[in-house]
Amino acid sequence: MTNIGVFDSGLGGLTVLKELASKKNANYFYLGDSKRAPYGSRSKDEILKLTDEIVEYLEKYDIDQYIIACNTISTIATEYLENKYKKKFYPITRAGVENALQYEGDFCLLATKATVDSHIYKEEIEKNSSSKVFEIPATKLVTLIEDGKLSGDELDQALSQYLEIANQNQIPNIILGCTHYPIIKNAIIKNLNYKANIINPAHNVSKKVNFDEDNKSSINIFMTQVNEKNKQIVDHILDCDYNLELKEI
């Protein structure tokens, strides 16, 4: 049996889990730290500490390989985790950059402050293409999504602000640089005044992550906070059977 660990600061990584589980069979163990989300505005030391606690918990399930389904954690903790646990950790940012390089033209990166501050998308894309990357720290979006505000005036006001540069410059490509953002893809499209390519890094993960597949999948979801709002979001994202448990870490 192949055990795959997938983790995120909250619900967003479920968009990555959905892509993986729909294409590759394994025993999936997902941990979302909604209780302490968002991570994007935290310090590096805080992010490393919280991430370490997540992986320590998942290790009890004899995980063969991990997918870091969080851009913030990917930019800060990948090397640290690989060195400490001596296992393979696949960062979502790698899939995002590789996916973006398939497109021509400039990019608008919507991401958390930590991901923007790392400049990982900007540096890798501009190094490997003639495109320019406009970095937008969309600091309010994760909190709005975790609170179940997937549409409405408050979300539209935030998106109108974050997409201002894209709308002014008709930037052809929008990178969803946080795995929470595909959950509000329709709202993002609504708040653009032109048609853009919406790049979701999760779409590329199943092509890049290799492991021995099982005959069927099982999906086990652990959340550090469970309420009616995030239960509804889980059902909104996943269209398959799963087990959901509240876990303190």
UniProtKB/TrEMBL annotation:
What catalytic reaction does the record list? L-glutamate = D-glutamate
Q: Which InterPro entries match?
A: Asp/Glu/hydantoin_racemase, Asp/Glu_race, Asp/Glu_racemase_AS_2, Glu_race
Going by the entry's taxonomy, the superkingdom of the source organism is recorded as Bacteria
Provide the E.C. number(s) assigned to this enzyme: 5.1.1.3
Pathway(s) the chain acts in: Cell wall biogenesis; peptidoglycan biosynthesis
The alphabetical list of record keywords is: Cell shape, Cell wall biogenesis/degradation, Isomerase, Peptidoglycan synthesis
So where's the catalytic machinery, residue-wise? 70, 178
Is Isomerase one of the keywords?
Answer: yes
- Give this protein's Gene Ontology molecular function annotations: glutamate racemase activity
Any idea which positions bind substrate?
8-9, 39-40, 71-72, 179-180
Specify the enzyme's EC class, one word. isomerase
**A Pfam match:** Asp_Glu_race
The keyword Transcription belongs to this UniProt entry's keyword annotation = no
Q: What role does it play? A: Provides the (R)-glutamate required for cell wall biosynthesis.
Q: Which family does it belong to?
A: Belongs to the aspartate/glutamate racemases family.
The protein's matches in NCBIfam families, at most eight in alphabetical order, are given as:
glut_race
Q: Can you say what this protein is called?
A: Glutamate racemase
Which species? Anaerococcus martiniensis
Chain's gene name = murI
